[in-house]
Design a protein that fits this description.
This protein has 14 helices and 19 strands. It is 33% helix and 24% strand.
Length: 476
C-alpha cells in the first residue's frame, strides 16, 4: 500500500485530494494519486466513504482500491516522501484512524479488490422518444440528455482502464460508447448476444458471453439496454451465490463487476449523472443483522472507571431498550458484552426484557477499544450466528456504526421516527447517546463485513421511547 508524507502537516496519509468543480470522484481519485505518487493507477472496487469533522467543517472521503505500474517518484512541496508498505505496517504508520478503515476494508476483500478482471455493464443513454422517431426502433439515436450522459461516461470510465469496448447493435447503445472510444482510441465492437431481441431468445448465451469477457480481462466495457442488464445482473449474482438488493439503474448508469479466478466476487452501481451519487453493491452469503448498543447512562462514584455502575436514568433506559428490541424484532442469536460494570448491568437489564436468553460472552477487548479493533472481533463471530448484539462504549460503538453504514438511501425497517436511512445516518452522526441502538443489516459472512457494506435500518435513542411513553404525548 502506498502512503505519502505531507511536510506541511508532518503526517503520513493515504493519497487523496479535493474534487474540482464538475469532476467525478473517480476522476479525482486517479488525478490525485498520479500527482502525489507518480503512479497512473487504474480503479478497482470502492472500499469506503469516511465522514469526519475538520476545522473548516464536515468532510467526506471516498477510498478506492487501485493498481498501477511502478513509476518514478518526484518529491514536491505537497508530498516529499512515498512509502510502499505491507498492510500491517501501513496501519501502524498512518497518523489518522479514519485512514485505517480503508485498510480494514482492503483486508476483508483481500486479493479480489486489486487483482482479477472487471466488466463494466453500461446502460445506454436516453434515446429520442419512439413517438418522435419515424425510423426503426434499432436506429433510434440519443437525444440531448443521452448525449450528455455519454459525455459523462467519457469522463468517468477511463478511471477503470478499459481496454475493450462492446455494444449491443442498437444505435443508442453504440452512440453511448463512441465518445469514450474516441478518447481511448478504441473501436466500439458490436455484441449481438446482448441485444434485446437476441437476449430474449438466448439469455444464457448473454450470461456466458459476459463471463467470457471477464476471463479475457483485464477490463471490458459493454453497453446494453436496461432490460438486458437487469436480467444479466440477477443471473450473474445467482450463479455466484451473491445477493443483489433492489436497485434502479437509470440510463447512463454503470455496474462495475469484479471477477477473480473466473468467479464474480462483487460489484457496484455508479449512478447516472442525474441520480443520487451512491454506490450499491452485490454481496456474498447470508443475510445478517448487527445490533450495536451503547451502554446506558452511568454514575460517577469514586471507583475505577471499569467499575462504574449505571445511574438511575441508565437503570430506567436499559429495560426500555430491551422491550423495543423485542417488539421491533431485533432479537440476537449471540451477545458480546464489555466486561465493564456499566456494560454488564446494561445487558442484564436489557436482556431480561427480550423474552429470550441468547448466549452472552463478556470480553475485556470491548472495553477501551477502537472501531477497527471491534470490527476485527466481529469478523471472528460464528457463521451460525445470524444476529449479533454488541454492548460497548463510546467512541467505538458510534464510530463503528458510522464506519459500516452505507450512504445509499434505503427504506428503514423501523426506528428513527420513520425517517429514511439518510436522515437516520445524519441523526446518528450528530449524536449517539447512552443506551441508543443502531441496527445494521448486510449480506455475507461476518468476516466479509467491511466499511460501507451494511444498511442502517434502525437508529433508536432511548429519549424517543421515553417521549412516546409519556401520557398525552403525540407522534409528529
Amino acid at each position: 500500500m502506498a502512503l505519502v508524507h505531507r511536510p506541511k502537516y508532518g503526517d503520513w496519509s493515504l493519497p487523496k485530494g479535493k474534487l474540482r468543480r464538475g469532476e467525478h470522484p473517480l476522476a479525482t481519485t486517479c488525478r490525485e494519486v498520479a500527482e502525489e505518487t507518480g503512479v497512473c493507477a487504474v480503479a478497482g472496487r470502492r472500499l469506503d466513504i469516511e465522514h469526519y469533522d475538520t476545522a473548516s467543517g464536515p468532510k467526506a472521503v471516498e477510498y478506492w482500491a487501485m493498481r498501477g505500474p511502478d513509476a518514478d517518484f518526484e518529491p514536491t512541496a505537497e508530498v516529499d516522501r512515498l512509502a510502499w508498505l505491507p498492510l500491517a505496517e501501513a496501519r501502524r504508520r498512518l497518523d489518522y484512524e479514519h485512514d485505517t478503515y480503508a485498510i480494514d476494508a482492503l483486508e476483508v476483500l483481500a486479493a479480489s479488490a486489486v487483482n482479477g478482471s472487471a466488466v463494466l455493464l453500461v446502460r445506454n443513454g436516453r434515446a429520442v422518444h419512439i413517438r418522435r422517431w419515424e425510423g426503426s426502433e434499432a436506429d433510434r439515436p440519443l437525444d440531448t440528455e443521452g448525449q450528455e450522459q455519454a459525455e459523462a461516461l467519457r469522463r468517468t470510465l477511463p478511471a477503470f482502464g478499459p481496454t475493450r469496448l462492446l455494444s449491443a447493435r442498437a444505435a443508442r447503445c453504440a452512440d453511448t460508447m463512441r465518445p469514450l472510444g474516441a478518447d481511448l482510441g478504441l473501436t466500439v465492437e458490436p455484441e449481438p448476444a446482448l441485444g434485446e431481441d437476441e437476449y430474449v431468445l438466448y439469455p444464457r448465451r448473454g450470461v456466458l458471453r459476459v463471463l467470457e469477457l471477464a476471463g479475457a480481462g483485464p477490463t471490458t466495457a459493454v453497453c446494453a439496454p436496461g432490460a438486458v442488464i437487469g436480467h444479466l445482473l440477477a443471473a450473474l449474482a445467482d450463479d455466484a451465490d451473491l445477493a443483489l438488493g433492489e436497485f434502479r439503474a437509470g440510463k447512463g448508469s454503470v455496474w462495475a463487476l469484479f471477477f477473480c479466478g473466473g468467479q464474480l466476487t462483487g460489484g457496484g452501481l455508479l449512478p447516472g449523472s442525474r441520480q443520487p451519487a451512491a454506490l450499491m453493491t452485490m454481496a456474498a452469503g447470508t443475510a445478517r443483522k448487527l445490533v450495536l448498543l451503547r451502554h446506558a447512562k452511568s454514575a460517577w462514584p469514586d471507583v475505577p472507571d471499569h467499575e462504574r455502575p449505571l445511574a438511575r436514568r441508565g437503570q430506567r433506559d436499559a429495560p426500555v431498550m430491551g422491550r423495543w428490541l423485542r417488539e421491533a424484532g431485533h432479537l440476537p442469536d449471540q451477545v458480546l458484552c464489555s466486561t465493564a460494570s456499566r456494560a454488564r448491568e446494561t445487558w442484564q437489564l436489557t436482556g431480561t426484557e427480550l423474552g429470550a436468553s441468547p448466549p452472552a460472552s463478556f470480553d475485556g477487548r470491548l472495553y477501551q477499544t477502537s472501531a477497527g479493533q471491534l470490527l476485527d472481533l466481529i469478523h471472528h463471530a460464528s457463521p451460525a450466528v445470524k444476529s449479533l448484539l454488541i454492548v460497548g462504549h463510546d467512541p467505538a460503538i458510534p464510530e463503528l456504526a458510522l464506519m459500516l453504514a452505507a450512504t445509499a438511501p434505503s427504506a428503514p425497517a423501523g426506528g428513527g421516527g420513520g425517517a429514511g436511512a439518510s436522515a437516520m445516518l445524519d441523526r446518528m452522526r450528530a449524536k449517539f447517546p447512552t443506551a441508543a441502538v443502531a441496527v445494521l443489516e448486510f449480506t455475507g459472512g461476518w468476516d466479509q463485513l467491511a466499511p460501507g457494506s451494511a444498511r442502517l435500518t434502525s437508529f433508536m435513542p432511548p429519549r424517543d421511547l421515553r417521549s412516546q411513553a409519556q401520557p398525552g404525548s403525540k407522534r409528529k
